[in-house]
Amino acid sequence: MGVGKVFAIIGGVLGVLSVILYYIAPDIISLWRLDAPLTLRVYIGGFGAWSGEFIAIPFGPEYSADIILMIVSLLIIGGGVITFIAGVAGSKAIGILGGIILLAGPALLLIELIAKLGVFGETLIPLIGDVNLLFGSIPGVADWGIGIGSFIAIGGGILGIIGGATV
User: Fold this and answer.
1) Total count of domains within the chain
2) For strand 135-138 and strand 57-63, is the pairing parallel, antiparallel, or unpaired?
3) What's the 3-state SS for 91-108?
């Protein structure tokens, strides 16, 4: 098994895990997070799910009607599965395509954050004000930004493209 196949398989697995692991550890593997330690913690994950704590009382995953977050998750998981299959089959074109689809998910999430669409514009902007949602902080009050799940998906997409190109 060549290095390209291994990269494509690992990239595909990382892509799928970046969405699925949210349901096991949302505070660690989320696509986006808001952490205001004294009052509110919000973790947004795959398929529009969000969970967290309000005044130290946890609330489980609830699902928003945010279609963009649903598309983000489908792109990440679909791209991850395609990249994995390309790695197993040894297909160069499908590996590159899967990696690009996998990267399209986090790219769409970034567009949603920058444009303040969906759940971010409707729910979170009234809570924290009109701020940059990619990364930010109010010293001593709250910090927010892209979560580790997004970075895992980006890494999986890059590995998928590299793996697909070198199969």
Assistant:
1) 1
2) unpaired
3) CHHHHHHHHHHHHHHHHH
pLDDT digits (tens, 9 = 90+) for 118-157: 888 887 777 777 788 889 888 888 899 999 999 999 999 9
Please say whether the beta carbons of 144 and 34 come within 8 A: yes
Sign of the torsion formed by the C-alpha atoms of 5, 9, 15 and 16:
positive
Domain with 24, as residue range(s), is 3-166
Can you give the CATH number for the domain in which 111 is found? 1.20.140
For 24-65, the pLDDT digits (tens) are 999 899 999 989 888 888 899 988 888 888 888 888 888 887
Q: How many C-beta atoms surround the C-beta of residue 107 within 10 A?
A: 16
Alpha-carbon gap, residue 119 to 100, rounded angstroms? 25
Let me know: does 80 contact 156? Beta carbons within 8 Å: yes
pTM passes above 0.85: yes
